[in-house]
Amino acid sequence: MASFENPIKHQVYLSLPEDMYSPLAPRRVESPSLLALNKALLDEYGLSSNWFEDAKGIHFLAGNGDYDGESPVAMAYAGHQFGHYSPLLGDGRAHMLGQLQNADGAFIDVQLKGSGRTPYSRGGDGRATVGAVVREYLISEAMAGLGIPTTRTLAILGTGESVMRDYQMVPGGIQVRTGTSHIRVGSFQYAYATMGKDGVQALADHLIEHHFAEVASHEDKYPALLEAVAVRQAQLISKWMLVGFIHGVMNTDNMSLVGETIDFGPCAFMDEFKAKKVFSSIDRDGRYAWDQQANIGYWNLSRFAETLLPLFADDSDEAVKIAEDKLQTYIVTFQELFQKGLMTKLAITANSKEADAFVNQALPTLESERIDFTLFFDALTRVANGEEETELLSLFDNQEKGQVWISEWNSLKDDSESALKAMREANPALIARNHQVEKAIEDAMERNDFALFQRLAEALKTPYTVSEENRDLQTPPAPEERVLRTFCGT
Ligand code: AMP
Ligand code: MG
């Protein structure tokens, strides 16, 4: 491909029913600047960075492009927010520019977030802050580094304009987000409510054609779609939980049907392990706490399944039975993956009663001993590979209890090369620590200083190894650095 050419040449969403989107160009901005370009991601896609770094590319991504012929759209969706149904949410500050094609020929959505008001903005200003886009860049790229399916951040831009947040003017930003799809559970809820069976069928056929080819030839393709979506969701949520990630706003409009992490709001990785941990300032009841995420996945999938019922069978009892059966796969898959993942983290492969009891007690022990989740599994991995136990032991509040735990673990762990390799791959040494992310945001917002952002972005690409100069990034927050609440920071 000629490298100075705009690679965003498709718009697959135009084939959906018209109710599902509104064509419109992003808002023009004063003086856009490219704050960061994710060249590693462009490499993954097999694209050169030239066009993106060219003034024309920057203006296109900031909303100042010539969109004639291209078709940016804002997408419509509904959603349950904290359990309450909103019939119309939609992209209130996002524009789907279209799709590029990666080296494999697959379509990749390119969406701007923070690009102006749309018919779905309700009271909102359609903007995002530099802080919010820095946060999403770091966390989405950290997820990718961990091998967890996620939307990505191709670039972040400054708009050169100010945005009002919490009675203060702060710099505005735009995130260039990419992803396999932006169809959400909430998209189906919207299609169901506005168009009924036909709308749902159009969306389901789109998903199958573009993202679930494996069910296309299935005799009962819609129940098969539900099952395939459920399996991907079980895979995703088990992966989140096994690295201590808390999404924070698992509303049905924030659940992507292709099983990628999407809509990073007040999300965070835990420091000290606490099963009921919540960061979000708006999640007062702990609906989206770390240990609730699997249940919420089921709840959201149930809302998805409800929209599909008319496609399952004419008889509603029969349709419900089919849905329940398919959703069962989610429960079984999640439990299996989570349990297996935890065993891998501990390098335990034995299937004895004793091993089961030990594995089941591992996280409660971390909690009662107030141990940092990531440091613990990293230290454990290093001990499994022959390092001294001193550091691992020092993580326990109660040293005696620590001694007992470690010796029991020593007697149960599998020392085979394959178990140790899997253990290393399950236990990152580096996560995007909330206090460091907040510091990077503060530096960027208040001093236009992107040094820590750049450093974190680079280090989080390879979270299973830490270089000597990045050792400090492993450090949990000191008491005064702890971020107790993460605000939506939009
Ligand atoms: P979120 O919590 O980011 O998933 O957003 C929930 C809904 O609010 C979505 O429909 C967003 O498009 C919309 N929204 C969030 N922030 C803004 C904003 N600043 N302006 C307009 N709409 C917004
Ligand atoms: Mg959202």
From TrEMBL:
<keyword id="KW-0547">Nucleotide-binding</keyword>
<feature type="binding site">
    <location>
        <position position="92"/>
    </location>
    <ligand>
        <name>ATP</name>
    </ligand>
</feature>
<keyword id="KW-0464">Manganese</keyword>
<keyword id="KW-0808">Transferase</keyword>
<comment type="similarity">
    <text>Belongs to the SELO family.</text>
</comment>
<dbReference type="Pfam" id="PF02696">
    <property type="entry name" value="SelO"/>
</dbReference>
<dbReference type="InterPro" id="IPR003846">
    <property type="entry name" value="SelO"/>
</dbReference>
<dbReference type="GO" id="GO:0005524">
    <property type="term" value="F:ATP binding"/>
</dbReference>
<feature type="binding site">
    <location>
        <position position="93"/>
    </location>
    <ligand>
        <name>ATP</name>
    </ligand>
</feature>
<feature type="binding site">
    <location>
        <position position="125"/>
    </location>
    <ligand>
        <name>ATP</name>
    </ligand>
</feature>
<feature type="binding site">
    <location>
        <position position="184"/>
    </location>
    <ligand>
        <name>ATP</name>
    </ligand>
</feature>
<protein>
    <recommendedName>
        <fullName>Protein nucleotidyltransferase YdiU</fullName>
        <ecNumber>2.7.7.-</ecNumber>
        <ecNumber>2.7.7.108</ecNumber>
    </recommendedName>
</protein>
<keyword id="KW-0479">Metal-binding</keyword>
<feature type="binding site">
    <location>
        <position position="113"/>
    </location>
    <ligand>
        <name>ATP</name>
    </ligand>
</feature>
<dbReference type="GO" id="GO:0030145">
    <property type="term" value="F:manganese ion binding"/>
</dbReference>
<feature type="binding site">
    <location>
        <position position="126"/>
    </location>
    <ligand>
        <name>ATP</name>
    </ligand>
</feature>
<feature type="binding site">
    <location>
        <position position="177"/>
    </location>
    <ligand>
        <name>ATP</name>
    </ligand>
</feature>
<feature type="binding site">
    <location>
        <position position="254"/>
    </location>
    <ligand>
        <name>Mg(2+)</name>
    </ligand>
</feature>
<feature type="binding site">
    <location>
        <position position="90"/>
    </location>
    <ligand>
        <name>ATP</name>
    </ligand>
</feature>
<dbReference type="GO" id="GO:0070733">
    <property type="term" value="F:AMPylase activity"/>
</dbReference>
<feature type="active site" description="Proton acceptor">
    <location>
        <position position="253"/>
    </location>
</feature>
<dbReference type="GO" id="GO:0000287">
    <property type="term" value="F:magnesium ion binding"/>
</dbReference>
<keyword id="KW-0067">ATP-binding</keyword>
<feature type="binding site">
    <location>
        <position position="263"/>
    </location>
    <ligand>
        <name>ATP</name>
    </ligand>
</feature>
<comment type="function">
    <text>Nucleotidyltransferase involved in the post-translational modification of proteins. It can catalyze the addition of adenosine monophosphate (AMP) or uridine monophosphate (UMP) to a protein, resulting in modifications known as AMPylation and UMPylation.</text>
</comment>
<keyword id="KW-0548">Nucleotidyltransferase</keyword>
<feature type="binding site">
    <location>
        <position position="263"/>
    </location>
    <ligand>
        <name>Mg(2+)</name>
    </ligand>
</feature>
<keyword id="KW-0460">Magnesium</keyword>
